[in-house]
Amino acid sequence: MLTMKPLIALSLLLGTTFAEMPAALQPLIEHVRTHPDGQAMNSLNFAALKGDRSGLPIGVFDSGIGGLTVLEAILKLDAFNNATLAPGADGVPDFAGERFIYLGDQANMPYGNYAAKGRLDFLKELIVRDAVFLLGQRYRASQTATPSYDKPPVKAIVIACNTATAYGIEDIRAALKSWQLDVPVIGVVEAGARAVNDITPSEGKPGTVAVLATLGTCSSGAYPRAIGQATGLAGKPAAQVIQQGSVGMAGAIEGQATFASPATDSAAWVDYKGPAVGNTSAPLDPALAALYGFDFAGVLGHENEPSTWKLNSVANYVRYDVATLVESYRKAGGGPPISSVVLGCTHFPLVAQPILEAFARLRDYEDAQHARPYHDLIAQHVEVVDPAHLTAKELFRELARAKLRSPNAKTAQSIIGTTFYLSEANAQWPGSALVPGSTTDLTDEYKYGRNPGQPEREDTVYVPMKVERVPGGLSKALPLVGAALARVAK
After folding, report:
1. Whole-angstrom Cα distance, residue 153 to residue 419?
2. Does residue 147 contact residue 426 with C-beta atoms inside 8 Å?
3. Do the Cβ atoms of 131 and 175 come closer than 8 Å?
4. pTM confidence score
5. pLDDT of 9 strictly over 80
6. CA trace torsion 398, 400, 401, 403 (10° rounding)
7. I want to staple 96 with a disulfide (CB 3.0 to 4.6 A). Which of 243, 315, 412, 453 is the partner?
8. How do residues 216-247 score in pLDDT, each as one tens digit?
9. Which of 13, 369, 400 is nearest to 223 (CA)?
10. 343 bridge partner residues
């Protein structure tokens, strides 16, 4: 039989309780309560969430497109018998008969930088607003269209974003409780911690766990706390956890203009926010140039003038983050070799192989004195921990526990369909500021200059995702998501 884990245990992993919901969220919570017909911005139709909800779709959200890696894991999961619920593949997708709605809050990403900018309360509001959108029916067919209200609400929510899980999962649960809505909420950090626990030996000294994530996820301390809790509850020895907060890898993967540019001249790229000499959040150290091992085809600037370097390829962001992580570990005194790496940002599974290659390169790296300073700090085999698979399994268990599986789940042979939405900047909203030349992206100054407490503000709008907004290689990397996007485009 299926073993169900109570949600309170998941709450303990992140060390928060319902009573700790920030006061800054109260205006949004009250706004939703006082607009029960779902017609207003950031509201939901409570009547549509009454009665039997098993036929409703499942909601998945991220700050951008990175959460599509989690959706891919959900779509391909076959870990249970659909008829008996017993563990074990039956040749049929576990979510056969289900529908999905995906939201990427691309206008407000990357979420990982809000905490560093001192906008944690606003980040928390964004995260709860994502849940409200999924539970609601309001969207726009385009930026300038009048609102439509025919989107179905969802019956469960998957937070396919590590930063949103770290900072907002308990806020969403608290909001749902205040609205008297019983909706399962599953987050990737909790799943990732249990995945680490699964590969941690019961005896002996475990290897060091490396977490690659955004600045926000790392500063939250969610992964070290959750990993320690998960292994502690299992009675296993505690592993050392080290972290690298990435400033720009997720943005570079998405092709954001501040982290990746079509420019060919370093001086012309004035809005660059990635690693650089003098960047206190992501400093480039010229003395570590050999260690980084950049491919200068993906660097703007003069090769012999590090002060001009601007990273302009995803591969170089990977090399920078892995090298910075390992060098920091060495300078801190080292310890057990790094034996696993948690992909603590949902974009990062898209570059899992380059990440492993970067670790392997550093393990064999020789300095000018022919010493190998990192050889003993990196295991010969580094295990990749992608929380997405375990997130998918926990979603299945939660739907079964809550009796929310589709009425067709026992007989269906495939997933019914997926609808995709993105947020875009609303150029018509007074005071909003767009990146020059863009119709969809807010400037950093405007994005990080906002405060919570204005739930009626519509400086971003939710619109159907256009296929051209997704990087071209995504369909190959995520074939089931790619096929779903192709069906939507027809």
Report:
1. 12
2. no
3. yes
4. 0.85
5. no
6. 120
7. 412
8. 889 999 999 999 999 999 999 999 999 999 99
9. 13
10. 212
Contacts of 368 by beta carbon, 8 Å cutoff, 6+ apart: 290
Q: Which two tokens stand for residue 377?
A: 């700090």
Averaged pLDDT, 128-135: 98
Maximum Cα–Cα distance across the chain: 71
What lies within 8 Å, CB to CB, of 315 at 6+ separation is: 295, 298, 351, 354
Angle (deg, nearest 10), helices 162-178 and 222-233 = 80
Per-residue burial over 207-242, b = 16 or more CB atoms within 10 Å of its CB, e = otherwise:
bbbbbbbbbbbbbbebbbbbbbbbbeeeebeebbbb
Residue carrying structure tokens 């999961």: 77
Say how many C-beta atoms besides its own lie within 10 A of residue 149's C-beta.
Answer: 13
Task: Round to whole Å and give the CA distance between 362 and 272.
Answer: 27
Task: Please give the C-alpha separations between residue 58 and each of 101, 228, 441, in angstroms, as whole numbers.
Answer: 6, 30, 27
Instruction: Please report the pLDDT score of residue 20 as a whole number.
Output: 60
Torsion sign over Cα 454, 216, 438, 489? negative
Contacts of 469 (CB under 8 A, 6+ apart): 65, 106, 422
HEC string of the chain? CCCCCCHHHHHHHHCCCHHHCCHHHHHHHHHHHCCCECCCCCCCEHHHHCCCCCCCCEEEEECCCCCHHHHHHHHHCCCECCCCCCECCCCCCCCCCCEEEEEECHHHCCHHHCCCCCCHHHHHHHHHHHHHHHHCCCEECCCCCCEECCCCCCCCEEECCHHHHHHHHHHHHHHHHHCCCCCCEEEHHHHHHHHHHHHCCCCCCCCEEEEEEEHHHHHHCHHHHHHHHHHHHCCCCCCCEEEEEECCHHHHHHCCCCCCCCCCCHHHCCCCCCCECCCCCCECCHHHHHHHCCCHHHEECCCCCHHHCEECCHHHHHHHHHHHHHHHHHHCCCCCCEEEEEECCCCHHHHHHHHHHHHHHHHCCCCCCCCCCCHHHEEEEEEEECCHHHHHHHHHHHHHHCCCCCCCCCCCCCCCEEEEEEEEECCCCCCCCECCCCCCCECHHHHCCCCCCCCCCCCEEEEECCHHHCCCCHHHHCHHHHHHHHHHHC
Task: Tell me the CB-side half-sphere exposure of residue 59, using CA atoms within 13 A.
Answer: 25
Percent of the chain, pLDDT > 70? Answer: 94
Round to whole Å and give the CA distance between 126 and 216.
14
